Amino acid sequence: MDSNKTTFNQFLYTRSFILLCISHTLFAASFSMIITELPAYLSEMGGEEYIGLIIALFTLTAGLSRPFSGKLADTVGRIPVMVIGTGMCIICSLLYPFVSGVAGFLLLRFFHGMSTGFKPTAATAYAADIVPAHRRGEAMGILGVSMNLGASGAPPFGSYLVNNYSIDMMFFASSFVAVISILILFGMKESLKDKKPFSPRLLMLKKDEIFHPAGLTPGFITFCLYFGFGAMLTIVPNQCEYLGIENKGTYLGILTASSILSRLIAGRVSDIYGRLPVLKVALFCVVGSLILMGYAHTATWLFVASGLLGFSFGISSPAMFAWAIDRADPSKLGQVLATVYIALEAGIGLGALLSAELYQNNVSNFTFTFWVIAGVSFLGFVYLFMVKGEKPFIIKDT
Predict the structure, then answer these.
(1) What is the pLDDT of residues 300-324, one digit of tens each?
(2) Could you tell me the pLDDT band of residue 10, with boundaries at 50, 70 and 90?
(3) For the chain, how many structural domains are there in total?
(4) Burial 259-293 (b: 16+ CB within 10 A, else e)
(5) All residues at 6 or more sequence positions from 1 whose CB lies less than 8 Å from its CB, including other chains
(6) Which of 82, 60, 58 is nearest to 70 (CA)?
(7) Neighbours of 398 (CB within 10 A)
(8) What pTM does this model have?
(9) First to last CA, the chain
(10) What residues have CB less than 8 Å from 36, skipping those under 6 apart?
(11) What is the CATH number for 337?
(12) Are 246 and 299 in contact (CB under 8 A)?
């Protein structure tokens, strides 16, 4: 058994795992609540040309902070790193109403990205510490479900607050939800055994602490997968306006709900049949759903494409992170996961930038934009057939 396993690693649904999932749900709700309303908010400030930076800056900071969060999670502990990430959500959401200029808004988005740079890295490592090895895929699926529950319920609620109260009310609600998330963390037991006190020297990174070799292959596939996610977050809100969909959070709610359904079974399937077969199916479905989204000229077809894309992400994510954990030295788990998350953020950020550049606020460019984005995902699908030497089944705890 891995040396970093704790004594309560006998069952999947332990108290610590359940609390982790609840905290993760609220964390996701906090930062997802505001996503669909930010493009219009920035446009009202006169920053319509910078819409692509709403997601890109957020993910850039998340990616830059991942190596630090991974190393700190492997040294000072998983919970302190989760607290830092959630705390950033609280602060940034409180500050949005007091920022009136485009530059200030974009700067705040830059710092807000630190939240997802810290919390998910440490949360995934924490989950890996406390669940049985032969149920890793299933655990990653349930952790993903908790994230998606927050992401699916929060955007429509955020839009409701804006439509019926004010956008400031939405920001304050986002901060309040993050407060509850962080309070839950204080009731959890630290899972890292060999903790070290924090020292500024821990912030000095070696090359393999930025991009850990064990995380590079899963990282590349993750990049190809989430390139389309960045594009979707950036231009589909505009597509909703074009199609007359008043509540722009609806499409994201459908995507996330369908992702939840697939995550409930996909993680367990990867535990039984292997990570790579599941990932091949997932990437093939991602490519098809992105092409369909480009051809969605009615609200119904946009919702169908969103549902298929969400189902595809739900299949891929548990297998991807379980695969990365399988490949990791337990003492470097946070750093390996950080590498995969860097790839995820890079995919989302670059997908957002490229899609905004191709779209150019011209509705006639929807189809072409999604075709290009689908091509990037297809590269990942082809690459999976080149991966050799991976064990098809996970080794159970002994």
Answers:
(1) 888 898 899 989 988 898 999 999 9
(2) low
(3) 1
(4) bbebbbebbbbbbeebbbebbbbbbebbbbbbbbb
(5) 133, 397, 398
(6) 82
(7) 5
(8) 0.80
(9) 6
(10) 155, 158, 159, 237, 248, 249, 252
(11) 1.20.1250.20
(12) no
